[in-house]
Amino acid sequence: MKHILLLGATGTAGSAVTQKLLSDTDHQLTLFARHAGEMYSDTPRMTVINGNAENIDDLKKAMRGQDIVYCAISGESLPKIADNIVTAMNQCEVKRLIFMGAVGIYNEIPDEIDGEDNLDNEPAQLPNRQAVDIVEASNLNYTILRPGYLEEGDENDFVVTVKGEAAKGYITTISSLVKIVVQLISDETLYVRKSVSMTRDAAQKETAK
What we know:
Radius of gyration: 16 Å
Number of strands: 10
């Protein structure tokens, strides 16, 4: 059993991961979001915290006693949040971080697939890239996850690529993201200090038409 802090626990990815961990593991979960109490209630396995990740004191209170931090927060404030997470984890002596960015932050999506979502073409990607740069510069045992647009679908409908490789697509099934997060929680050496994308193979989908 591990103690896991889920930041952004009320969002699409955070809530899906929460439900999977509750149903398939015995881990103790701390669910952290601005309005976490509107979706969840405390149980023997869940501690619910209404908190703001832009406030480092909120984060430090939630970090104490955790084994793993999973961050599924997005938005313009993500660089500040990433900096707070790194600082709080170091102060609380928590080392394992699973951090969600987005595919395209390294301009890794081929133009023929969806180059418009690359950083050079999409200013909204800048906070994602800045936040990931902060995490990658840390001394934490991080894994960066770079999903694409989240949709319903098969949990096995994905291809993993690592930083420096071209992404295979720009869409990620929610269930495949959840599957990988659960694997990362189970095996803390998996993709450690790596940045990986997991997307549907756009070329395979085109061939199947």
